[in-house]
C-alpha cells in the first residue's frame, strides 16, 4: 500500500510458533473434535483468519448491482482440515442464507465478523473438503475493526483495502499466511465492465447482464484479491514477453483518463527494471487499474495494483506498488507486525529506481531523511518491528523501513546486499516470512553479526547513531 497520497505526493514470535497456532483447533481432553479457533493467531487482529483449516482455492460467483450497491452470490472454498473439526469458521460480514459441506447442508451461525459452519459429520485431520456459502447484502453498510472499507458510489465500486477487504465480498480465511488460488466471476449490468486479478478467462452475456470471469494462476493472500465494477477504458497487450491489462475509470475527466493511461503504460518497463535487481517477475500477467472513486491510497493487488487518479508523472507510485509484487505479494508477511518488510522494501525500491534513472542515489535519500528528523522527533518513537495495529501504515514504517535497507546495503556492501535480497525472494517465493527470518538470513549471507544494527533500526525508539555499525558512516 502507498501511504496517504495527500501527504506522500507532497513529499516527493517465530514463524513456526505462528504456523502451529495458526491452524489450531480447540480439542478437548478426550481427543474428540471441537470447534476450529476463531482466529489464526495474529495478536494485532485476533479474529483474522481461522483455526483448523488450510484453504487451497476460492471460486467466487457474485453479481453486483452498481446503482443499488448490492451484492449477492456464492463462494466455493476448498480446504484441508488441519485438525479434527466439529465446526470451523470463515471471516465474513454479509448475511448468509445457507452453506453446504461436500454437498450436504450445514448449520450456519454469524456473529459480527465470524461465520461458523457446522457440518453434519466431523471433519478428520488431513481430509479435504468443499464448502459452498450463499449470501447477499449491501457491503457499504458493514464494518469491522473500526473499518468501513467498501468503496463505491452509484457509478463504480472497487474492492481495495488493507489489511482487510475480503470479508466485505466473499467468505475467507482472511490472513496473509493462508494463500490460495482465486477464480472470480462477477455479473454486472450489460455495458459495464469488471476488472480483477490475473487473466480474463471469459466474458459472457446473459439476460441478467454480463459475467466477467478472471482467474489468478498463482496463490495469493485474501486481502490482495479484488474486483472493480463500472465503466472502464481497457487496454491490453504484451511487452517484454509479459501480458498486461490496464483499466481506467471513465468517471474521470477526459484529461485525467489520458494521463492515467499514460502512467499505467509504464508498468511493463518498470517491471523489467525491477526484475534486473529482484529476479524474474513472479506472476504470469501484470497491469493496473485507476479508479474514479475518491481514494487516497494505492494498493498492491496481486498482478494488478489499483491507483487513484494522480496524473501521468507519478512514476514512483507505480514503482512502489510493482515492487510489492515481490515484497508483500510473492513473499507475504507471516504476521502483520512484520509490515516493514513490505513497505520498507517498496520504499527502498523507489529510491533504487530513481538512482538508476537519473535521480539522486539511494544513499542521498537515506541521509536526507535521517538529517530531516532530529533526535526527539516523533518519527523515531515507533518500534518499527512491532508498531502495533494502529500504526501499521505510519510514515515511519515506510521511511524507516526503507532507511533500514539502504543502511544495510551500506553496512554489508553492494554484492552481499543484493545476494541477500535475491536469496530472500528465491527461498521465500510463494510463501511467507518474518522480520527475524530476514535478519537471520542477512547475518548468514554477510557473515556479520548484525544484532546491534537491527536493534538500532527496528527495535529502538530513538534515532540511530551515525556510526559505521549502523550503516551511516
What report would you give on this structure?
With 473 residues, the chain is an alpha+beta fold. The chain has a domain at 336-459: Neutral Protease Domain 2 (Neutral Protease, domain 2), CATH 1.10.390.10. Helices cover 26% and strands 28% of the residues. Strands 6-5-9-3-2-12-15-14 form an eight-stranded mixed β-sheet, with no helix packed on it. Strands 1-4-8-7 form a four-stranded mixed β-sheet, with no helix packed on it.
CATH topology-level fold name of the domain at 336-459:
Neutral Protease, domain 2
Q: Could you tell me the strand content as a percent range?
A: 25-35%
Number of helices: 11
Q: How many beta-strand elements?
A: 22
> What is the 3D shape?
globular
Mean pLDDT: 94
Cross-sheet strand order for the largest sheet: 6-5-9-3-2-12-15-14
The CATH top-level class label of the domain at 336-459: Mainly Alpha
- What ranges have pLDDT less than 50 throughout 5 or more consecutive residues? 6-30
Radius of gyration using CA atoms only = 22 Å
* CA distance, first residue to last residue: 31 Å
By CATH, the architecture of the domain at 336-459 is named Orthogonal Bundle
Keywords: Hydrolase, Metal-binding, Metalloprotease, Protease, Signal, Zinc
Domain Aminopeptidase N-like N-terminal: 57-224
Protein name: Aminopeptidase N
Domain Peptidase M1 membrane alanine aminopeptidase: 312-457
Topology:
Layout: H1 5-8, H2 15-22, E1 34-35, E2 53-65, E3 70-81, E4 85-91, E5 95-101, E6 104-105, E7 107-111, E8 114-118, E9 128-137, E10 151-152, E11 157-158, E12 180-188, E13 193-196, E14 199-206, E15 209-220, E16 227-230, E17 232-239, E18 242-249, H3 254-264, H4 267-278, E19 286-290, E20 306-307, H5 315-323, E21 332-333, H6 340-356, H7 362-371, H8 395-412, H9 414-428, E22 432-433, H10 435-446, H11 451-459
Parallel strand pairs: 1-4, 2-12, 18-19, 19-20, 21-22
Antiparallel strand pairs: 2-3, 3-9, 4-8, 5-6, 5-9, 7-8, 10-11, 11-16, 12-15, 13-16, 14-15, 17-18
Domain Aminopeptidase N-like N-terminal: 57-224
GO molecular function, one term: zinc ion binding
Enzyme class: hydrolase
